[in-house]
Design brief:
Elements: H1 3-10, H2 23-34, H3 38-60, H4 63-80, H5 90-106, H6 127-132, H7 134-143, H8 146-157, H9 162-169, H10 173-195
């Protein structure tokens, strides 16, 4: 597969919309959650449920499981909001909580079967993405080890930078780059094998 085709294939994972809110505003909302304000938890849900759900769906491969993990995440946020210490952005902290909840739920389960993106979770793919065939990419993604899959999902679906991914996963930036490199090679091999 050419580098351009690989790039088009990886763009099939729609990027999370950039939020224009100031990080201080998110921190204020999280502080209100820590004080027991249920409406503030609702605000966080409105802001982050879509990107968190998309991340969890790609990790779990199943809509129902992703919804359950999202609910577990919200409960964990409700219980642990007071532990947030502003060492990272609120969004990075939320992705970290979601990732831990996903690992707790998915531990010991076999890799997910390929799944179609849920309605409303992502914009429709454009002509470039359709030309590369999203089904093949999704099937290849499901074959990745969880450590590589979560890096790919955070980088290409959630549009997070290497430092943010490293913080969420608790690994060095170099390891993020290495996992992305290996994941791209695996995805390329899976997609090329299907083309032959």
């Amino acid at each position: 597969m050419s580098e351009g085709a690989e790039s088009m294939a990886l763009r099939w994972f729609p990027a999370m919309e950039r939020r224009s809110r100031a990080p201080a505003e998110d921190a204020d909302v999280l502080a209100r959650v820590a004080d027991g304000n249920a409406a503030a938890l609702g605000e966080l849900y409105e802001r982050y449920s879509r990107p968190l759900f998309a991340f969890l769906f790609r990790l779990a491969g199943d809509r129902g499981t992703a919804e359950e993990i999202l609910q577990d995440t919200l409960l964990a946020v409700w219980r642990s909001a007071g532990t947030y210490r502003s060492r990272s952005s609120v969004s990075t902290w939320l992705f970290g909580v979601a990732r831990r909840q996903a690992h707790n739920r998915l531990r010991g389960l076999p890799p997910p079967l390929p799944a179609e993106p849920p309605d409303g979770a992502a914009p429709e793919p454009g002509p470039e993405e359709l030309a590369v065939s999203g089904d093949r990419v999704q099937q290849a993604l499901a074959r990745l080890p969880l450590a590589q899959r979560e890096v790919v999902v955070l980088a290409y679906l959630s549009d997070l930078g290497h430092p943010e991914i490293a913080e969420i996963l608790g690994i060095p930036v170099g390891t993020v780059k290495s996992r992305l490199h290996h994941a791209r090679a695996t995805l390329r091999g899976c997609i090329d094998a299907r083309v032959d």
